[in-house]
Design goal:
By secondary structure, the protein is of the alpha/beta class. The protein has 19 helices and eleven strands. Strands 1, 2, 3, 4, 5, 6, 9, 10 and 11 form a nine-stranded mixed β-sheet that branches. A two-stranded antiparallel sheet has the order 7-8. Helix 10 runs antiparallel to helix 11 and helix 13 runs parallel beside helix 15.
């Protein structure tokens, strides 16, 4: 009979460990938990779940730690999980069936990384609406998927590679072994951790990423990974650009590296150079909606509005249900002179996702630029009624626009509602006092009926 074991490295994982191990329990006959120095009850919990716990040193190397755990395994197959992960219940039926008919040495497993917003991305992958029925996952609005080889045949020549972002995948490819895609996935909760935990992880990954680059100076992937940490987690655009450029030099066919080189250049305002890098990403097969959207942004910011509109339309062909792209395409069309079509797109984007504040803001700004102030005021007020947490600035803008539209009473209503929802707010109160003074009354009385 083919056997499956669970291999883990942990530290202070008491909060998550039980759920993780229990999710894999029905399919594993051996559990090895390698502890790197827990100070909570991780070790006791692991032993109570039937795991064999080994103490291992932590030397800033995830692959080394995982390989120490792997060396203790005796089963035919190995499932690798982290403590903040849960194996989806579909795996319970899938894994036994899989092992009966596979010739693969390993399986890429989809990992659902739960995030706190639909606007979040991991690398160049967008967040998807969360449709999970798993109770632990229901509170998260979205997730971003990636893949890693987490299920593989145990063999003396198979081991994890990479000090950080470690995987057995590169080793299997190096050995010429077959990798397939698993028909199940893993739930991961670590990216939705509190800010302090995320910051601590970011610092660790930066340190390990730097060591990985020093150890593997000709590894394009290592340079890409560190560049993403510098860009996304530390805002260090100059260092990120250097790392992405080096990744492209090491592997000129590395489409995703060309893409992120273009993203950094776009953020730095080097629009012509950004377009060159983004075009190179496309030539190397990285033809995603996000590449086309970034090309549209570069064209738009450089004043080439017709080219921007075309790029956004290409992005929409690749991701047709994106309200953000519909909104950007609408704004670009307005700037080309196709005003009514552009406005309809801006309004349609809001209908697709009414709670997205930036979509309302784009419509308001467009209407102001077109000098359609009453419509802009109405759009600014409509935003207040649908977004989750309108800020003082939102009420100030709506009030200012109603005042410019010649409706001071409506402006006062916006300010009064804002004061009620944001007490005490001196800026809103000062604006209300100034509005009263401007029309020659001492103060406004009770607020008028508002859409909020």
């Amino acid at each position: 009979m083919t056997t499956v074991g669970l291999s883990m490295i942990v530290r202070d994982a008491g909060e998550w460990l039980r759920s993780c191990v229990e999710s894999a329990g029905p399919v594993v006959s051996e559990i090895i938990v390698a502890d790197t120095g827990s100070k909570d009850k991780t070790v006791e919990i692991a032993r109570s779940l039937g795991a064999r716990v080994i103490a291992i040193p932590w030397r800033n190397d995830f692959a080394e730690a995982r390989n120490l755990a792997l060396s203790q395994m005796t089963t035919d197959w190995v499932l690798s999980l982290d403590a903040d992960e849960i194996l989806d219940k579909t795996a319970i039926a899938a894994i036994p069936n899989l092992l009966e008919k596979t010739y693969a040495a390993g399986f890429q497993v989809r990992i659902r990384n739960y995030v706190l917003s639909l606007n979040d991305r991991i690398w160049d992958r967008p967040a998807l609406p969360n449709d999970s029925s798993l109770p632990a996952a229901k509170k998260y609005p979205a997730y971003v998927e990636h893949e890693n080889v987490r299920f593989f045949r145990r063999s003396p020549d198979v081991h994890f590679v990479g000090r950080v972002h470690e995987s057995v995948g590169p080793r299997l490819l190096e050995l010429g072994k077959r990798i397939e895609t698993a028909p199940f996935f893993i739930h991961h909760f670590g990216l939705a951790a509190d800010a302090e935990t995320r910051e601590r992880k970011n610092r660790l990954y930066r340190e390990l990423g730097r060591e990985k680059v020093r150890e593997r100076p000709r590894d394009a992937q290592a340079h890409l990974e560190l560049g993403l940490v510098e860009m996304d987690n530390f805002g260090n655009l100059d260092e990120a650009l250097r790392l992405f450029q080096r990744a492209c030099q090491l592997n000129p066919r590395f489409g995703v590296a060309w893409f992120f080189e273009g993203v950094v250049l776009l953020r730095k305002g080097s629009y012509t150079e950004a377009l060159k890098s983004l075009s190179q990403a496309e030539r190397q097969g990285h033809r995603t909606a996000l590449v086309a959207e970034s090309q549209g942004d570069a064209h738009y910011n450089s004043g080439a509005f017709s080219a921007a509109a075309k790029s956004y339309e290409i992005a929409l062909q690749r991701e047709p249900e994106s309200p953000q792209l519909v909104s950007k395409a609408g704004l670009a069309q307005i700037r080309t002179g196709d005003v009514e079509v552009g406005l309809r797109k801006l309004q349609r984007a809001i209908e697709m996702k009414p709670v997205a504040a930036e979509l309302h803001d784009r419509l308001v700004l467009a209407l102001v630029a077109l000098d359609r102030i009453p419509e802009a005021a109405a759009a600014a007020e409509a935003k207040l009624g649908v977004i989750a947490c309108p800020q003082a600035g939102d009420f100030l803008r709506a009030a200012s626009l109603w005042s410019k539209a010649g409706d001071p009473a409506r402006a006062a209503a916006m300010l009064q509602v804002g004061i009620q929802l944001n007490p005490p707010n001196k800026e809103l109160q000062r604006a209300l006092d100034e509005l009263a003074q401007s029309i020659g009354i001492r103060e406004f009385s009770c607020p008028l009926e508002s859409s909020t």
